[in-house]
Amino acid sequence: MDVRIRWKAVTRSRAVEEHLARRLRFAIGRFADRVTAVRAWLEDVNGPRGGVDKRCAIEVDGALGRRRAEVRDADLYVAVDRAAGAVGRLLARAADLRRTHA
Predict the structure, then answer these.
(1) Each residue of 70-100: pLDDT tens digit?
(2) CATH class for the region spanning 3-100
(3) Averaged over 1-10, what is the pLDDT?
(4) What is the pTM (predicted TM-score) of this model?
(5) What is the rounded CA–CA span in Å between residue 91 and residue 32?
(6) I need a surface site. Which of 49, 64, 67, 97 has the fewest CB within 10 A?
(7) Domain ranges of the chain
(8) Which Pfam families does the record associate with it (predicted)?
């Protein structure tokens, strides 16, 4: 799964990239054959002031349409976990709807 990551005001980190890839494989792996593109945005919204300012947005395109989840948290790893989980649930819901309307 090819994941395009955009970094904004956050130091690029191999550890965060690997964490994101691992969480996405877990969250959307069963839909991999229906996913054509995955994009992620990692951002420190207010710079060095701290607070709930780490943002992770994940957008997935494919046979189930475009799904997007965005989460803010004080910890970038937590934001990644929650956003990946949310986009996985969105894909599951879309697959269920397709199944019931087919």
Answers:
(1) 999 999 999 999 999 999 999 999 999 888 8
(2) alpha beta
(3) 89
(4) 0.91
(5) 11
(6) 49
(7) 3-100
(8) Ribosomal_S30AE
